[in-house]
Design a protein that fits this description.
The protein contains 16 helices and 13 strands. With about 375 residues, it is an alpha/beta fold. The longest helix has 16 residues. The protein starts with a strand and ends with a helix.
Amino acid sequence: MKIAIITNNYPSVLDGVGDHSFYLANEFRKNGHEVFIICSANKEIITAAHPNVYPVVEQWDKNGYNKALQQLSLLKPDWVLLQYVPYGFQRIGLPWRMPFFVRQIHRKGFPLLISFHEIFVRLTWHLRKIYPVGILQRLIAAGMCLYADRIVTSIEFYRKSLSWFTRKKIEVIPVAPNFDTAVSCSAEQVSKVKMHIPKDRKIVATYGIRDKQYMLHVFEAVLAKDSNIQFLHCGSVKDQEMIDRLGDHLYVTGYLSASEVPVYLKTADVFFLPDPVDRKGNGGTSNRSGSLAAALYVGIPVIAIRGDMNNPELINDSQVVLADYYDIDTLSDTIISVAQRGTAATGKWEKKLNWKTIANQYFE
């Protein structure tokens, strides 16, 4: 079968949806499918020289969409997979041409699967300046659903949101880690990383700084109660204040390649993922996160944030502890407690979140 994936970004551009497209494409090829990528004409993508990648879209405007359609007409795929993120296709999150684009795909007779990685911003009164954006994003999503042969999203919250616009079946397929799950890391690799960290310290890993001041408050609350904690940040920290205040209790890996991420995560006793949530509980951790998928896949316990985006599997999972974002005293106790006792991984997420399993849910 010939599959054309339409995505804004693709490696070597650092982008979660681009990585998602890359690993899906690899698995589709392993299953015997012929895969083509239609994406932005980014210099980093062009110089990477991937096979069957067509970086033909200079900008997602009328001309760009026409170029993508022309490429589809030349390729004549059996399926088109559109990787949709509003802000990926338009700077302020309003790709208003997208419904017309998917209608043209439909009219050309190409079966279309739309994967909604994000849909719209919330309509909250205190953010009334973005109210029009939220309304228009909903109209765009509704228009797209009209012409989709299959609709996929990553979490139950998004499935319910999309069900406002369509009676079509909406499939929920979680996001997998942004690394190759077919490649395992050795105990020797993990031991080499641990050599950089004092042996008597429990390791709390994080991946990405979402709110520097919040992270500092949490980390300092933890260290005030237990000085035998080491924070391992996977990635770069450019803020000198955080480095100065946490001292040698913060180990920063710097940029990690995809193959290095699971090695560093496996050194940790617990993974902390402080996804934002407001006072009303809007937000929280969910299976749309590649960072969450990475931690679950390698089998370490996860302290996540309680909110309305939590999907049922996280709420009822023994590997995940859901905490109150705003109760830092209790949260710090929870981090220490979980780091000390650990949680035995069941192996469920390793089976559920590997790329082979994910890809087969799209196309076998």
